[in-house]
Amino acid sequence: MATFFGEVVTALSRAGVDEEEAEREETPEDLEIRRELEKKRCRRRWGRDLLTLVLPTGCNAVAFLSSFILDSVRWEVVGAVSLWNEWCRTLDATNVLPTDSFCLFYRLISDPTVLLCQCNCHVAEDQQFQWLEKVFGYIQKKDLQVIILSTCPVTNYKTPESTLTLPSPFLKALKTKEFKDTICCPLLEQPNIVQDLPAAVLSYCQVWQIPAVLYQCYTDVIKLDTVTIETFKPVLSSKIMASLVKDVPESTEMLKKLLATNEIHNNIYT
Amino acid sequence: MFVPCGTAARRDFKGFTLLMPSVSVGNVGQLVIDLVISTLDMPKVGYFYTDCLVPMVGNNPYATAEENSTELSINAEVYSLPSKKLVVLQIRSPFIKNKYRSFCQTVLSWVKSSKCARVILLSSSHAYQRDDQQLHGTPLRYLLSPTIQKTVGDQMQKLNWKEMEKVAAYPEINNAEKVLHIPGGGITKLLFTERILLSMSFSFVLKKKNWVEHQPAYSHFKKTTNCSKEIPMAVLLKFCSEGDNIPDALALVNYLNEWLQLIKNESSSTTTTASHWKIPSSWRLLFGSGLPPALF
After folding, report:
1. Residues B10, B4: contact at Cβ < 8 Å?
2. A28 and chain B: CB distance < 8 Å anywhere?
3. What ipTM goes with this model?
C-alpha cells in the first residue's frame, strides 16, 4: 500500500503470523539471548499476605496516589519488581529512581494488609503475565480485593460523537464479577476495551474470582497534568480508599511539588 | 489453561464439536465466532487463560440489555450449547511474539483432555495471493483431516464444496511437489498440520536430535511412539482482504451453516442470509468514533 507521501510499504496483516516467521526455527544463539533477557526482565524482592492491593499505572495515576494517599510517615517501602524492556532508560538495578523501570511496593504501617504498588514504568505485553505471577503468586487470593487506576488517551474512546466534543478528562470503570461495592463513575461501555497491564490484572482477577475494579481516566494530555490527576478524586470516596486519604492541604502541597519537579525534568535545557 | 466458570461448570465436552477461529486476515474467523455466539445466545462456560495472547478486557460483547451488559470478558473465552453438542472458543486479541506455537500446543492439549469429537477451525487467507484458477468461482474453501474425511467427505461432495488447493513447493523449478499454503491464515496451517498431538518430550527429542520431517528417522519415531494421536479437524476459510470484513464473515458463517445446520432456514431459499444472524452489540463503531462536525 502507498502512504501519504507516496512511499510503498508492506501492509500489516492482522493475522499476526507470517509464513516466513512460522517456518524460521530459533538458533541456539537466539535461545541463549532469550534466556538472558528473561533473567533480566522481571525480578521480585518481596512477599506478603494482604487483603487490599492498590495499583496505579502511568504517571498521572501514580501522581494522584502520591499526592492523596502516600506519605513517608504512614507508608513504608517493602519491595520492588524490577524489569527491563526496550523502553527502559537505565540498566542499573541498584539505584532506584522514580523514573526507573521498577514497580515499588508500599505497605501501610498501621495495617500491613494494605499494599500499594506504584507502577510508573512500561510493562511490555510479553512481560505482563510474568509480572502477574511475580506479584500475585505470593499473595493469598482469599479475601483479596484489588483497585487499579490508569489513564488512556481520549482518542482511544469510541463514541458515536467525535471525541473532540467530549468533555475530557473523564472517568470510566470496569469491574470483575465478584466486585460488589459501589463504583464511583459510569461503567465503560462496549465497544470500548482496556489493554496493557490494567487489562492483564483485571483478567487475572476475573478468572480467579478476585473482587477488582479498574478506574480508567480518558484524557487528552499525555504528560503529568493537574486536571487529569484530579479527575481521579471521586475514587477517594470509595470504601477501599476512604480510610487511606491524607489531609487535603498536605495533598495539594504534594501535588504542586510533583508537578514542579516534573516541569524541571521536562525542560529541554537541563 | 481452561478455567471453568458459572454455576454448572464442566471441564469435559465429550463428543462435542469445537469451533474456534484463527486470528487471520480480516479477523474473519473471529467475526464468525461472534455471530455464532450472539445468534445462538450461547452461555459462557469458562476462560482460556493463557500467556500467549495480548491481554484485553471489556464488558459483555453480546449484551442485549443493561442487565447483562456488565459482565467482564477477557481475551479468550469458551462458550457452550449442549443441546447442539457445540463448544466455541473465541480469541479476541493477537498472539504475543513467538508464542503462537505454545498456544497451538496448549489448545491441542485442551481439545484432547476435554474429549472433543472434532475441531472446526474458521480462517481466512489473502485474496491477493490467489492463483489464476482461484480467482474464478467461490472464494470459500475447506480442508479435512484424514479421520474426519471418512465421516464427512461425502457430505462435502454433495454440498459441492471446493477443497483448498495445494501449491507448488518450488514454483517454476519443480511443480510436482505440492504443499499447503495459507498466506494470511495465522496459525491455520500450523494447527492443521500439527493436529497430531505431540507430547512435550517428543518435541524435546526432535529439537535435541535436530530431526526434520522428511527424514526417515522422524517417520519411524512417530510410528513407534504411542504419544501421537490425530485430532479430527476441519478448516473452513474464505479468501479476503483487510477492510470491512462483515460481508466476509456472513459468507463464511453461512458456509459453516450449510454443513452444521446451526440455524434452520425457514424460507424456501437454500442458503441462510444476513438477516438470520444476530449482529453483536460490540460490532458498533468498528471503524472508530464519529467525525468532528468542523471537518465539513
Report:
1. yes
2. no
3. 0.85
